[in-house]
Amino acid sequence: MINTALPGLDQAPVPPSPRTVGVRALVRQRPLLTFFVLSCLVSWWPAVVAAFGSSEGGLAGFGPFVAAVIVLALTQGRSGVKDLLARMIKWRVGPRAYLVAFGIPIVITAVAILLTIATGAAMPSAAALGAWTQIPLMVALMLLIPGMGGAWEEPGFRGFALGRLEERFGLSAAPLLLGAFWVVWHLPLFLNGAILLTDVLVILAVSVVIAAVYHSARDSVLIAMLLHATNNALGGEFARQLFTGSDAARLGVFVAAAWVLLATAVIVRQRRRRGSRKG
């Protein structure tokens, strides 16, 4: 008798190894924990390299994005990854979302700069102030280049982690809990002096504000990325180059105060809305 079966087609599929099954089961049981651990592992390698004196250190800002993709691939497969990528290019959200994403960082940075100068800081040079023309380019580069300027943190922190934290801890607590982890994630930058201690408050407050903006834009990760990139371009790349020493520290205090006030207003407004719905 002639064997008409095609080679390989009549063979049973090779079952996954016990190790692979064990890893997937662990990730599915603890997706958030896995995400947080992977985010740090993927993001902190520049700091590890710097510990051996071969670089200045820092963070690989694409770490949260990579961690989210890995966890989604292991827990939801291709559909989960595609959903995240779709929300990263979700641009049809209405003009108000764009106005907020660009407007909040502009207003906070401008107010902080003016207050810093008004309280005695040295007036920045015309050349330093003229660098504002580079801000649009910096925002574009931060959006397009993974790891540059923080925007690519958003697919992980807001696109993946926020909703899952909200399911477990509620809409009010989740942004603060995520903000606390976000502070820990920034640890290498605190240790090498790249960011100020007042940025602990900034990170916590920004986490609350971005969560609100993200949800108002129908969970558009793109809007969260725009807000993050604009804020880092204005606050980190522009405003902090205008002042040095105690003046820079004063700017940091005003920036932190502005973000905390805005975050407080967001929390109060959210609680009033929930109260009115219950009533």
Description:
- The chain has 279 residues and is an all-alpha fold.
- The chain has a domain at 92-274.
- Helices cover 71% and strands 0% of the residues.
- The protein contains 14 helices and no strands.
- It has helices spanning 18-29, 31-43, 45-51, 63-75, 78-88, 95-118, 126-129, 135-144, 154-169, 173-185, 187-191, 199-216, 221-238, 245-278.
- Helix 6 (95-118) runs parallel beside helix 13, helix 8 packs across helix 13 (221-238) and helix 12 runs antiparallel to helix 13.
- The chain is globular and about 60 Å long.
- The relative contact order is 0.13.
SSE topology string: HHHHHHHHHHHHHH
Segments where pLDDT lies below 50 for 5+ residues? 1-10
- The helix count comes to 14
The dominant shape is globular
Instruction: Classify the beta-strand content into a percent band.
Output: under 5%
State the distance separating the first and last CA atoms.
Answer: 80 Å
Write a compact overview of the structure shown.
This protein has 279 residues and is mostly helical. The chain is built from 14 helices and no strands. It has a domain at 92-274.
Write the layout of secondary structure elements.
Blueprint: H1 18-29, H2 31-43, H3 45-51, H4 63-75, H5 78-88, H6 95-118, H7 126-129, H8 135-144, H9 154-169, H10 173-185, H11 187-191, H12 199-216, H13 221-238, H14 245-278
Helix pairs in contact: 1-2, 2-4, 4-5, 4-9, 6-13, 6-14, 8-13, 9-10, 9-13, 10-12, 12-13, 12-14
